[in-house]
Inverse folding.
C-alpha cells in the first residue's frame, strides 16, 4: 500500500532542490508509488511522439511535445495558499449556525 505524501493535487508548492530550485507552481499529479509529483511548469521535458492513425478520431499528429516530468516529493515545499482550500468546509460551518437562507 503506497504511503501518503505531504502534498496533494492542486496544492501550491515551491521547488527547494534541483535545476528548477525556487520555482513555484501547482501540483498537477501525484505518483505515491514512486514518491514523485508533477508540478506545473517545472522539470520540462521533450517527448517525441510518432504520428498514429489509431484512436477515436483518426490521426494523432506526431512531433516533439514539451511537458512536465515528475520530480521527487522531497524536493518540494508546500506553500500557504491564498485561495480557500475547501468550499465544503465553509458550507458545513454555515449549516451548523442554524441560520436559514
Amino acid at each position: 500500500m503506497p504511503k501518503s505524501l505531504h502534498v496533494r493535487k492542486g496544492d501550491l508548492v515551491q521547488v527547494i532542490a534541483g535545476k528548477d530550485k525556487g520555482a513555484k507552481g501547482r501540483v498537477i499529479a501525484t505518483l505515491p508509488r514512486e514518491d514523485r509529483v508533477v508540478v506545473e511548469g517545472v522539470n520540462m521535458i521533450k517527448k517525441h511522439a510518432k504520428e498514429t492513425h489509431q484512436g477515436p478520431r483518426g490521426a494523432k499528429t506526431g512531433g516533439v511535445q514539451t511537458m512536465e516530468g515528475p520530480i521527487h516529493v522531497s524536493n518540494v515545499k508546500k506553500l500557504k495558499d491564498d485561495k480557500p482550500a475547501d468550499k465544503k468546509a465553509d458550507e458545513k460551518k454555515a449549516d451548523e449556525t442554524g441560520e436559514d437562507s
